[in-house]
Write a structure and sequence with these properties.
Layout (H helix, E strand, L loop, with lengths): L1 H106 L1
């Protein structure tokens, strides 16, 4: 009977030790699950940030493309203006020459 009591005591001690190990494992598992949840939320946050930054980068690229097109249009306009100014100068010179010739012809 004494051996049975010792065996029961040993089994109870083993059960208590197993229960303690199980509780420790459950706590460790809970901590790991909490860490995983935190990391998942952090990952989602980073993915959202990346998406916003990509959208902003695309918007900036579109703005840059528009600015480049505006610059090309302005350069074309400036080139046209330069051509027109040269034509006006040439016409003014021709007008002055013609006017001078007309005065000379009238004076003769």
């Amino acid at each position: 009977m004494e051996k049975l009591r010792e065996k029961l005591a040993t089994l109870r001690a083993e059960i208590d030790a197993a229960n303690e190990r199980a509780e420790t494992s459950e706590q460790a598992l809970k901590q790991l699950e909490d860490q995983q949840t935190d990391r998942d939320q952090e990952l989602i946050s980073y993915q959202n940030r990346i998406r916003r930054l990509e959208d902003e980068a695309q918007m900036r690229e579109d703005q840059l493309d528009e600015a480049k097109q505006f610059q090309r249009d302005n350069e074309a306009t400036l080139n046209e203006s330069d051509v027109l100014v040269k034509k006006v100068v040439t016409l003014e010179e021709r007008f002055d020459d013609t006017e001078s010739k007309l005065r000379e012809a009238l004076e003769k």
